[in-house]
């Protein structure tokens, strides 16, 4: 059902590394839009071959895959451990755990790809609660346990395509977002759903910085039909174990057909609204980052091409550039949501 192509596209020497694209994204924001091109970082150095996707869970539970059990309450560990395979999978090679948990974007913990793993170590994720508010019959402050209790947990292997033109294949554990949201009974006025990340400057150095590229708390949003699409997922684990803080513990969104920045981490608030939420990246650079942010090789970022992506793990000897697929390869499931919309205008 899911499209499973794996092409090794040829790399043009003119192509800048996506690491430099990332540096550029950050510099651009800091400088208020002025383009500055300075030293480039190297792409992540090579890693071992990725594992067979079908063995993700085996690997995770055998321990041979270096998947540690992080400190999380027992009930949550058990919940994650109870996950069952789902129809959402791919036969592409999994990105190794070390890359998934060591190469991150979580600006609250710093801008370098290795900052979140270093700086989020002591993030407090228990107790955790989520405020549900806005256009909904059952608003309230729910403990994480209440949020998760009625739901079965499933494994889903999804591609993650960052707007910076790198990508991974990640085995998540979690719950269909639609199933979770329906319980709160959105009203007929609920046209959008907004999500907010924890705001805790005492724990999150990025939120204390006076040079911040983005506003906090981090806010993302979806149209209600996007939120209710079967692909949209709330993750509580990865590689068969609870989420490490750098990946958005204890609860983070996964929207696999959109650029990674829509997949907001460490969620503390869900708000149903009648109007389109003002989201973090749209506020920071509206000409560069749209509300929809659907993966689309036909619509370039104003400062770089979106035609290809660097699939991790890669190395300078094996850049692993592959073609980017429209809707990140999930068009069959989601293209209908955008029928009649000009995707150049609604980027
Ligand atoms: N709160 C918050 N959520 C966030 C981000 C962030 O900086 N802060 N970065 C986003 C971006 S740009 C990407 S690509 C993904 C990366 O998720 P991963 O580190 O789990 O691979 O998280 C997204 N969610
Ligand atoms: Mo991203």
TrEMBL record:
Gene3D superfamilies the record matches: Oxidoreductase, molybdopterin-binding domain
Signal peptide as annotated in the record: none
InterPro entries, A to Z: MsrP (IPR022867), OxRdtase_Mopterin-bd_dom (IPR000572), OxRdtase_Mopterin-bd_sf (IPR036374)
A GO BP annotation: protein repair
Binding-site positions, Mo-molybdopterin: 104, 107-108, 162, 197, 247, 252, 263-265
Keyword match Oxidoreductase: yes
Highest taxon of the lineage: Bacteria
Catalytically driven reaction(s): L-methionyl-[protein] + a quinone + H2O = L-methionyl-(R)-S-oxide-[protein] + a quinol; L-methionyl-[protein] + a quinone + H2O = L-methionyl-(S)-S-oxide-[protein] + a quinol
UniProtKB keywords: Metal-binding, Molybdenum, Oxidoreductase, Signal
GO molecular function: metal ion binding; molybdopterin cofactor binding; oxidoreductase activity, acting on a sulfur group of donors, quinone or similar compound as acceptor
Matching Pfam families: Oxidored_molyb (PF00174)
Ranges of residues in domain Oxidoreductase molybdopterin-binding: 122-281
EC id: 1.8.5.-
Coiled coil regions in record: none
Cofactor: binding comment: Binds 1 Mo-molybdopterin (Mo-MPT) cofactor per subunit.
Cofactor(s) this protein cannot do without: Mo-molybdopterin
Family the entry assigns: Belongs to the MsrP family.
Main function: Part of the MsrPQ system that repairs oxidized periplasmic proteins containing methionine sulfoxide residues (Met-O), using respiratory chain electrons. Thus protects these proteins from oxidative-stress damage caused by reactive species of oxygen and chlorine generated by the host defense mechanisms. MsrPQ is essential for the maintenance of envelope integrity under bleach stress, rescuing a wide series of structurally unrelated periplasmic proteins from methionine oxidation.
Subunit structure as annotated in this protein's UniProt entry: Heterodimer of a catalytic subunit (MsrP) and a heme-binding subunit (MsrQ).
UniProt protein name: Protein-methionine-sulfoxide reductase catalytic subunit MsrP
Naturally occurring in which organism (per UniProt): Endozoicomonas numazuensis
Gene: msrP
């Amino acid at each position: 059902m899911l499209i499973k192509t794996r092409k090794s596209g040829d790399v043009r020497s003119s192509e800048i590394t996506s690491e430099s694209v990332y540096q550029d994204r950050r510099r651009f924001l800091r400088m208020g839009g002025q383009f500055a091109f300075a030293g480039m970082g190297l792409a992540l150095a090579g890693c071992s071959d990725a594992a067979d996707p079908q063995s993700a869970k085996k690997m995770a539970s055998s321990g041979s895959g270096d998947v540690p059990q992080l400190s999380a309450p027992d009930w949550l560990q058990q919940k994650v451990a109870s996950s069952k395979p789902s129809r959402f999978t791919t036969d592409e090679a999994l990105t190794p755990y070390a890359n998934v948990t060591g190469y991150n974007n979580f600006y609250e913990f710093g801008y370098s790809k290795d900052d979140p793993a270093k700086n989020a170590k002591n993030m407090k994720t228990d107790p955790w609660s989520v405020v549900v508010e806005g256009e909904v019959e059952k608003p309230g402050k729910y403990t994480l346990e209440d949020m998760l209790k009625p739901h079965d947990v499933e494994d889903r292997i999804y591609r993650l395509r960052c707007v910076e033109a790198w990508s991974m294949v990640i085995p998540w554990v979690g719950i269909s977002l639609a199933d979770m949201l329906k319980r709160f009974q959105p009203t007929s006025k609920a046209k959008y759903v907004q999500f907010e990340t924890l705001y805790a400057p005492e724990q999150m150095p990025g939120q204390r910085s006076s040079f911040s590229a983005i506003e906090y708390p981090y806010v993302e949003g979806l149209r209600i039909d996007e939120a209710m699409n079967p692909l949209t997922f709330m993750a509580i684990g990865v590689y068969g174990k609870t989420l490490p803080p750098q990946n958005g513990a204890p609860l983070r969104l996964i929207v696999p057909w959109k650029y990674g920045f829509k997949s907001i981490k460490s969620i503390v608030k869900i708000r149903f609204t009648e109007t389109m939420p003002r989201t973090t990246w749209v506020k920071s650079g509206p000409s560069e980052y749209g509300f929809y942010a659907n993966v689309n090789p036909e619509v370039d970022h104003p400062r770089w091409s979106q035609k290809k992506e660097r699939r991790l793990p890669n190395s300078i000897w094996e850049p692993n550039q592959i073609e980017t697929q429209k809707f990140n390869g999930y068009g069959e499931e989601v293209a209908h949501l955008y029928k009649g919309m000009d995707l150049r205008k609604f980027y």
